[in-house]
């Protein structure tokens, strides 16, 4: 047990305090008593600045006082605007007690009447204190202190002092909950030296509730950061209606997180830590009131409010409390979640990919994890191009989100940096010099189509036979894959995919003849993904561009699926062919999961566009999206992913060919992309489903659905190739 709590508080009169201030510090003042639990504090009024005299408990360790003073000095040096009460003179000794003189802070005592804005501001100030102390340490910070939530198990001997059996049982349940949920995970919580008692009794505020004074570092110690947050929350919530507790707590946590976000484990255990703090308040109060009845009024000031809040938390499941305080909600069972999805979205949303749905709860690199911890090798998703949840991309998003998320009508450096960075990646001969940032590949292709029709005055398009270019009205019209009954919605002519062995010259001649209204643009997905994945010859693409230009149309290179090194080692698929597109559209992998896309074109085209100078997308190119896209480009370059992935992809396709399976008709692709054409769509569907059951995700493509689509993140390695090829070998 901590001796400072077991020792009687000092018992000096106000006259004694005035005399001590004069003798030790030369301050001639009148004294008035301030409340204190284990020490004595007096307000000194000398008609000028005055001060606060603090006479420590005789059981107080001198090293602990050194800790307090050093912590205050450190905060003042790191964040000088924090209103901590600083010592005005070196401490002195008097009659067996350590005596200190602190500056007087002015303000009002805070209480449960604080408005929401004040609660948020108070918590933000608390976070600043924690940030200031995170680089501080002192040998005495590891002292044993019963008020430290880490010492919660040591409260059990005090429970006999709680007379009412029901309340005693309530505290016992709280301690059991701590032992079950917190104690085994305490060492995983972030820890530092903290104030230790950042509660309303130790704060002054102004008329608007802003903190003007931070007092009493007497419980300063090394503890879990979340425990210090829990102490502040318990104080903020006491005295309020319990049914408003979580709302107010969330506002406080918003304020704290604006400076110092909490981690998932901290949020998960925060409710248990608040309950532990309340248990400490009522247990220590009962024990000390029995020993020092003359100080009972101060000791028990918050007892009833603490009991009410403790009873409220006791009535909730720990998971429910954690969810209310911002932890991730409990996971819904897969089938129940699928049912809710169907009820909420109906038949308009595309069906789930597999008969047994992939229930993704987290992902990392090339792996997706399901609720039971089972992991799936992701050889399907092309959005996380640098790997699921790449830390650099995630951090770029978080950092910029904390700074600002505005729109392209305001100046923001990430937008300009991204546009310039993108332009620098395109071949000089393409003469692309203008960028417009948007939200998605669909929006990019929609805008490219508007630009083409606006600058040419025509409305005809050429696309490949089973192409996909997006989900907007315009881009869906350019996507035969999505046409109902596969009927053309207008002036759209189709050609077989280059690289499929077709007579492209004849196909182009027929398509151009079909377009009575003239050609506005030819759209080509460089990966020919929806057509079954083909690899066109350079001569074919040059012919396509030449015929498009001869007909007065624009050539749009759709790099939404092919770009960002998918068909590397070049960043853009058209680059290796030496062609010069009029427009390039980017999307999907551009933000590694964050929605961002772009249209890249030539200035002379963009300025002929009827909507030049007025085209705008509210979220297109916002600084957060731009920061994500910049991070993706950085990772692609630093980790040399396009080059590495091209070699891995080459080995992948060769290994599948080497299987020598009769049901494999052809293996096509380039870079880290493989299209494995099987003997039937039915077989391809069966194989894809069985691969999923074996922990590997691939897709299907092609107009007959007979091509396995293997397009993993670029961080796919040879070991992952071996897993996929081995599983495919067994299934075929």
General shape:
elongated
- Give the name of the CATH architecture of the largest domain: 3-Layer(aba) Sandwich
**Rounded Rg:** 34 Å
> Can you identify the CATH superfamily of the largest domain?
Type I PLP-dependent aspartate aminotransferase-like (Major domain)
**How helix-rich are the residues, as a percent range?**
40-55%
CATH topology of the largest domain: Aspartate Aminotransferase, domain 2
Number of domains: 4
Strand element count: 25
Number of helices, counting only DSSP H or I runs of 4 residues or more? 23
Please give the largest β-sheet. Answer: 7 strands, mixed
Structural class: alpha+beta
- Cα separation of the termini: 70 Å
Produce a short descriptive summary.
40% of the residues lie in helices and 14% in strands. It is of the alpha+beta class. Strands 14-20-19-18-17-15-16 form a seven-stranded mixed sheet, sandwiched between helices. A five-stranded antiparallel sheet has the order 1-2-3-5-4, with helices on one face.
Structural write-up:
It is a single chain. Strands 14-20-19-18-17-15-16 form a 7-stranded mixed beta sheet, sandwiched between helices. The chain has a 5-stranded antiparallel beta sheet with strand order 1-2-3-5-4, with helices on one face. It has a 4-stranded mixed beta sheet with strand order 11-12-13-23. By secondary structure, it is of the alpha+beta class. The protein is elongated, with a radius of gyration of 34 Å. The relative contact order is 0.08. It folds into 4 domains: 3-61 and 85-102, no CATH class; 108-289 and 305-324, Alpha-Beta Complex (Aminoglycoside 3'-phosphotransferase, Chain: A, domain 2); 333-360 and 374-383 and 640-732, Alpha-Beta Complex (Aspartate Aminotransferase, domain 1), CATH 3.90.1150.10; 411-617, Aspartate Aminotransferase, domain 2, CATH 3.40.640.10.
């Amino acid at each position: 047990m901590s001796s400072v709590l077991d020792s009687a508080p000092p018992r000096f009169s106000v006259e004694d305090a005035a005399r001590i201030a004069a003798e030790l510090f030369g301050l001639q003042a009148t004294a008035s008593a301030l409340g204190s639990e284990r020490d004595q504090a007096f307000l000194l009024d000398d008609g000028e600045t005055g001060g606060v005299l603090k006479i420590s408990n005789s059981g107080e360790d001198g090293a602990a006082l050194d800790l307090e003073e050093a912590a205050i000095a450190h905060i003042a040096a790191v964040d000088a605007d924090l209103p901590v009460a600083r010592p005005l003179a070196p401490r002195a000794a008097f009659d067996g007690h350590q005596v200190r003189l602190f500056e007087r802070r002015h303000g009002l005592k805070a209480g449960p009447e604080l408005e929401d804005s004040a609660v948020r501001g108070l918590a933000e100030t608390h976070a600043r204190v924690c940030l200031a102390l995170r680089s501080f340490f002192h040998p005495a910070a590891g002292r044993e202190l019963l008020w430290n939530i880490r010492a919660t198990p040591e409260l059990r001997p005090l429970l006999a002092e709680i007379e009412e059996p029901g309340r005693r049982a309530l505290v016992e349940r709280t301690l059991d909950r701590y032992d079950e949920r917190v104690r085994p995970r305490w060492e995983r919580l972030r820890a530092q030296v903290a104030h230790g008692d950042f509660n309303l009794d130790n704060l002054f505020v102004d008329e608007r509730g802003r903190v003007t004074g931070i007092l009493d570092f007497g419980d300063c110690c090394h503890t879990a950061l979340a425990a210090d947050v829990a102490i502040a929350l318990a104080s903020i919530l006491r005295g309020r209606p319990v049914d408003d507790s979580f709302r107010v707590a969330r506002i406080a946590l918003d304020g704290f997180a604006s400076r110092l976000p909490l981690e998932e484990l901290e949020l998960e255990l925060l409710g248990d830590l608040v309950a532990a703090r309340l248990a400490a308040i009522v247990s220590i109060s009962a024990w000390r009131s029995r020993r020092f009845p003359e100080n009972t009024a101060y000791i028990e000031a918050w007892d009833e409010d603490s009991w009410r809040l403790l009873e409220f938390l006791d009535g909730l499941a720990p998971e429910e409390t954690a969810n209310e305080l911002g932890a991730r909600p409990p996971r819904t069972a897969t089938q129940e979640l699928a049912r809710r999805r169907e009820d909420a979205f109906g038949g308009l949303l595309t069906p789930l990919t597999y008969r047994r749905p992939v229930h993704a709860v987290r992902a990392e690199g090339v792996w997706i994890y399901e609720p039971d911890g089972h992991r799936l090798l992701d050889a399907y998703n092309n959005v996380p191009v640098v790997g699921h949840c790449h830390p650099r991309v995630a951090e770029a998003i978080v950092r910029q989100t904390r700074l600002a998320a505005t729109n392209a009508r305001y100046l923001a450096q990430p937008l300009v940096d991204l546009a310039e960075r993108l332009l620098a990646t395109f071949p000089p001969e393409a003469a692309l010099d203008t960028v417009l940032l948007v939200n998605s590949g669909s929006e990019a292709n929609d805008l490219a189509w508007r630009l083409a029709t606006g600058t040419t005055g025509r409305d005809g398009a050429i696309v490949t036979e089973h192409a996909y270019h997006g989900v907007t009205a315009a881009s869906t019209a350019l996507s035969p894959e999505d046409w109902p009954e596969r009927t053309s919605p207008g002036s759209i002519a189709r050609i077989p995919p280059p690289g499929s062995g077709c007579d492209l010259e004849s196909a182009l001649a027929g398509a151009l003849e079909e377009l009575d209204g003239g050609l506005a643009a030819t759209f080509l997905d460089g990966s020919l993904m929806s057509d079954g994945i083909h690899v066109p010859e350079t001569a074919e693409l040059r012919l396509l561009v030449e015929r498009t230009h001869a007909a007065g149309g624009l050539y749009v290179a759709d790099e939404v699926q092919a770009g960002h090194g998918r068909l590397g080692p070049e960043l853009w698929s058209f680059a290796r062919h030496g062609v010069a597109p009029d427009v390039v559209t980017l999307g999907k992998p551009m933000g590694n999961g964050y929605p961002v896309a772009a249209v890249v074109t030539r200035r002379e085209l963009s300025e002929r566009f009827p909507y030049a100078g007025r085209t705008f997308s509210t979220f297109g190119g916002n600084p957060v999206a731009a920061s994500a896209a910049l991070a993706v480009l950085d990772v692609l370059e630093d980790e040399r992913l396009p080059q590495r992935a091209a070699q891995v992809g080459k080995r992948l396709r060769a290994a599948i060919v080497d299987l020598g399976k009769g049901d494999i008709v052809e293996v096509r692709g380039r870079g880290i992309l493989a299209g494995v054409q099987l003997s039937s769509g039915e077989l391809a569907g069966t194989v894809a489903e069985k691969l999923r059951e074996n922990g590997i995700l691939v897709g299907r493509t092609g107009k007959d659905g007979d091509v396995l689509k293997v397009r993993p993140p670029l961080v796919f390695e040879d070991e992952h190739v071996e897993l996929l090829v081995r599983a495919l070998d067994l299934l075929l």
